[in-house]
Design brief:
Helices cover 53% and strands 0% of the residues. It is mainly α. It has two domains: 1-56, no CATH class; 66-75 and 83-365, no CATH class.
């Protein structure tokens, strides 16, 4: 440890500046009193900013996301001073993006799983960038100020297109690739279709002869009393929702035990039929997914991890307000509008993403 006393401060500062994560900076600062003193000096914010850029970058796009507000159009770039308060917000959205980087390979190579692999650092960077930009679009245009009646308004279309015009066609393809991942999670995990529920139920219980009852005909028997028939929680649309969905379970041990098996959507019991977990088939399910894609990446991830039952998801959505229902997302529509304005063939762009010629894992020549 005495050796550290003879290392020039400038060299130690450069070591801090080359750390690849905020945890590395904090750990290094705990090595000795001198390192702690250097960390607490005038270069502290610069050290943390460099580490955050390496771990969660690009910070420029993350800053546009966390500083967005209704006082300024979303397509106008904002320049803000770096601070610890800003860093806290950047770390929050960065950690959400990092979780999606771990999910992406399972969705991208779901069918051809023999090609599945971890993302390179460059690919993780592009996916984080795409998620920050898609998240900004969601925050700006998927809210109560943008109702179903306004989605085809020329003024609204122009405003949405202005944001997308900030990015090249290749960058838009990256966002479309990330959007496809979110769609897959909503389609398969958050709001599975009747067919998905039936396939997974039969795979888990091949000897089960029970016929699932899907809510597609009015002459089906009424479902058993739902443990979720409570007022929806008031949840902010842009913050990690509080874990209020289970409050009514925790308040009654008897009720919790009675419905304990219901936390597994595929478990059949006298109070729970897995068929009730389906969100419809074909056209009906398509529109459900379109509605749910107005949620931002953090909200979708939270529902995937914390809302295993349909009733929980419904309760959460009701807490967002009446504007949310029957009001599909507008990202795909706006993307196609912008691509056509640029003279691009929309079908060819999507095919190039599928062929990995464009998108997050595009082959680099």
């Amino acid at each position: 440890m005495h050796f550290f006393e003879y290392i020039p401060t400038e060299i130690i500062t450069n070591v801090f500046l080359f750390c690849n994560s905020i945890d590395d900076v904090i750990t290094l600062s705990s090595t000795c009193k001198r390192f702690r003193s250097i960390y607490n000096g005038t270069q502290r914010l610069r050290m943390l900013q460099n580490a955050a850029e390496a771990q969660f970058g690009p910070l420029e796009d993350a800053v546009q996301l966390v500083t967005h507000n209704t006082s300024q159009p979303a397509h106008i770039l904002r320049s803000v001073s770096f601070s610890l308060a800003l860093l806290k917000q950047l770390v929050h959205v960065g950690r959400v993006a990092e979780k999606w980087c771990d999910i992406y390979p399972f969705k991208k190579w779901r069918e051809n799983f023999e090609d599945r692999r971890l993302l390179t650092e460059g690919e993780r960077y592009r996916l984080r960038r795409a998620l920050y930009r898609l998240w900004l679009y969601t925050r700006a245009f998927h809210n109560c100020q943008h109702s179903r009646e306004l989605r085809m308004s020329p003024l609204m279309i122009h405003e949405r297109a202005e944001l997308l015009h900030n990015w090249s066609t290749e960058e838009l393809a990256e966002i479309a690739d990330a959007h496809a991942m979110l769609r897959d999670v909503v389609h398969s995990n958050v709001c599975p279709s009747n067919g998905t529920i039936a396939r997974r139920f039969n795979k888990r219980y091949p000897d089960q002869k029970h016929q699932l009852l899907f809510n597609i005909h009015l002459n089906y028997p009424s479902p058993p009393p739902s443990p979720f028939s409570v007022p929806p929680p008031q949840v902010s649309a842009y913050h990690n929702p509080p874990n209020l969905l289970f409050t009514h379970f925790n308040s009654s041990p008897m009720l919790a035990n009675k419905y304990h098996s219901a936390y597994n959507r595929y478990t059949y019991s006298n109070v729970h039929d897995p068929g009730s977990e389906g969100w419809g088939d074909d056209i009906g399910h398509y529109y459900v997914v379109e509605d749910m894609l107005k949620l931002d990446p953090e909200q979708i991830l939270w529902l995937k991890e914390n809302a295993p039952l349909k009733g929980m998801v419904e309760l959460y959505v009701k807490g967002l307000g009446e504007w949310f229902e029957n009001n599909g997302e507008t990202w795909g529509q706006t993307l196609e509008w912008v691509l056509r304005e640029r003279g691009e063939d929309v079908g060819e762009v999507y095919q190039a993403i599928s062929d990995e010629e464009l998108g997050i894992v595009a082959c680099e020549e």
